[in-house]
Amino acid sequence: MLTILLLTMRLFFKDPLFDAQLIRAMNHVYYNGADVGECITTASRIKEKDTESWYTEWNKTAERLYAEAKASEKAGHRVSAGEAYLKASNYYRTSYIFLYHSSPDSRLKINYGKQKEAFQKACVLLNYQAEAITIPYGNTNLPGYFLKVDSTDVPRPTIIITGGYDCSAEELYFFSAAAALKRGYNCVIYDGPGQGGALIEQGLCSRPDWENVVTPVVDYLLTRKEIKPECIALMGISFGGYLAPRAVTREHRISACIADPAQSDLYEAIQTRMPSFLLKYLQSNNSFKQKIANSILNSVIKNPVKGWSLRRGLFVHGVNTVKDYINISRQYNIKGIINNIKCPVLVCDAENDEIAAFAKEIYDSLSCTKAYIKFTNAEGAGEHCEDGNRSLFNQRAFDWLDEVYNNK
Questions:
Q1: Quick one: which of 81, 117, 1, 17 has its CA closest to 383?
Q2: Does residue 144 sit in helix, strand or coil?
Q3: Which of 314, 329, 344 is the last residue of a domain?
Q4: Which residues, 6 or more positions from 370, have their beta carbon under 8 angstroms from its beta carbon?
Q5: Which pTM was predicted?
Q6: Which of 173, 386, 381 has the alpha carbon at shortest distance from 261?
Q7: How far apart are CA 300 and CA 309, in angstroms?
Q8: Of 96, 126, 156, which marks where a domain is finished?
Q9: Less crowded by CB within 10 Å, the N or C end of the chain?
């Protein structure tokens, strides 16, 4: 019974979660990942709170754009094809967002693959300096991309971008990688455990000690001549706002960190979004109370919309019950080690984002060089991850990073 994010700016749907995901898809129009008319027309065909309708209509739009891209490519129209593939990638991703489940629908893996393929086709046709990479990680590899400002091997400041629960490496391009490239930063976008292809194709579930994920990424970067080793930054988006600060408590080769929104304690966040009696019953030694809690939560999980957040949590963390999810959430906590962070940190907050509830508290507890930015509804940037005005986030975040690296 975790509450869902509420929007101050209602765009189309009465249901706030549907509307939030619509704004997320439209948010990517800034870097050619969507068109407003296509998104609104698709939304008009979707039934309220009907996740099957959501999948069907977004998939239909994605398939149409993919077919148009293919036709343009065959006719030799590279730019038209590339732009259509880019939008198709975003629409395929949007289509499968509600399919996250501990026993995932086969369509999740299929459309994840389609969004990845469409993105890679777009990069080739639009002559992006985007190289698909595999980052050595334990006994396997993490998928990602190394994006360069241009075709030269000039060493440049480089930013690693980490997503959250349901983001893919490809979507990170639209969020902030394209903005980084325009400002002269090379960029790594990747899927770590519990994210994108690492989760959907390899079954790698999330882990709390994200330094053991970022360290292999930094190791990889240091094999490349296009980077400045003293200028490697890390940005965390959505739940990445916990993962990135956690990583820099141990990985000190990172010289700047951006947390959007900053988070430090997953269990505390769950406490603020789950009714207190339900949390107590679930963790009680009283079997009757546990039975009541499980009955309520099982009912919520079965709800296509209200249960989405819990189903997603079970899938990402590789657990079968809400109790297991809550227990594992206690490991996602950096409060006792936050003073290990040595690099400059930008703490981001958004007025209407309940996930950012503790951002200012985190900022106050940091002992390193730090800055704090609160994005507001009046700016059109008050939603989760500044959806609706992501360009404002990129403007302010990269201006801050420019100043951090000014003398390096």
A1: 17
A2: strand
A3: 329
A4: 344, 345, 346, 347, 363
A5: 0.95
A6: 386
A7: 10
A8: 126
A9: C
